[in-house]
Design goal:
alpha+beta; two-stranded antiparallel ribbon; 260 residues; 7 helices; 5-stranded mixed β-sheet; binds adenosine-5'-diphosphate
Length: 260
Amino acid sequence: IYINPIKYLSKLERVKGIIIIMQDVTELRQLESIRRDFVANVSHELKTPITSIKGFVDTLSGGQVGDRKTQERFLKIISLEVERLTHLIEDILTLSHLESKPQDNQGQSILIPPLMESIFQMIQPLAQKKEIELRKEYLTPIPQIPFNPEYFKQMMINLLDNAIKYTPHGGRVWVEFMKKDNALVIKIQDNGIGIPREDIPRLFERFYRVDKGRTREEGGTGLGLAIVKHIVQGVKGEIKVESERGKGTIFTIALPLLEE
Ligand code: ADP
């Protein structure tokens, strides 16, 4: 809209000026809609395992299942669904903590190599199960970086866990670290199934999954990459993804270093 101030000024001669306050509520509306979607998604994600648990518990307690083998199979499903619920709630709490305290490094800085040793120890059994080769390489000397160690662990585990999950048996997952200009660059690469080009823009959204059935089967919550993005943005870093279907995926993270 355009308002001609002269028109009003000529009628009200003693007015020396006009202040027009306009508020753009587009962003507010968008935030409100994201929040609404999130609540709806969380409710749906919680409901699915709860419905399944209730169904199996009802069947078992109704005494319809006589043989022990089937009972054990049902109990195993219940236990897996409880695990899924626990994982989902942990991820939701992490996201909410990251939103309220995005730069929670409390003056801490980290030394990457020893931290990566413990991360690899945690993740190695997953890789071994699929006979995936897991490697890391330091291409330059790596300085200490200001970072919350728990956030760093979570970021790397989420990305490595995905790389292993979406890489077939016998594949390769490798991580490279290098100092470049005033940033620490981390590349997490795999030669797995890749991500279709059209899915890449929405990849970091909460609960966005490329193949819903498949990731659910793998036990994913759909929140892993949203958490990673929050952690990276919390330290004013950047993350990007390059991928080719059937060839593999590279996540590149650039974390700013302190001025020397
Ligand atoms: P999930 O818990 O489902 O793995 P994420 O937020 O971690 O959720 O990832 C979102 C989606 O991105 C996944 O469902 C998967 O389809 C895709 N994805 C993430 N990492 C990779 C990867 N390294 N290779 C192929 N697809 C991936």
